[in-house]
Amino acid sequence: MKTKIETIANVIVIVFAVVVGAFFVKDRLSTDAPEPNTVKAGDKLANLDGWDWSAHEQTLVLGLRKGCHFCEDSAPFYQRLAAKPQQGGSTIVAVFPDTADAVKEVVQSEGLRIHALAGVPFEKLKIDATPTLLLVNRSGTVVNAWIGMLSPRQELEVMKATTEPTAADLKLPDPLEKK
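^ thats the sequence. predicted structure below, dont judge the formating
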């Protein structure tokens, strides 16, 4: 009798383990995961208080946050970007979810000479990670989006998309030059 009870208990434990295991496997393999609310090219952005998309041919939006180490590490690139002449009618604006005092502190400490907006709800711009760079046209449509700390190749993409080329940018390699 004792062995019969033990056998039944073992079978119940095994069946329970299989059911729980199947539940977790099904959950892992499920393709019904919600789509992230990440901004992408083609998205239409809501108007921001204090900013008019139509006033500029294109706007490069820097989505930054105080204390974001990737934003701080990217500051030298943002400084170079802001120092270069922008393409006709283009501008750069930094948006922060932080208070105006925190934004002023970040912009001044990093030496950024750009327009900055404080207290912008990132949900309005579909920004869920910092730094995020958005190239937005005058109708408020995202032309291109770069999320996270940029690679050198991505930095070059942003430069080409937003700034007027300088003579150094236009210099082509001399095909006759010896290597």
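Residues 21 and 111 are 55 Å apart (CA to CA).
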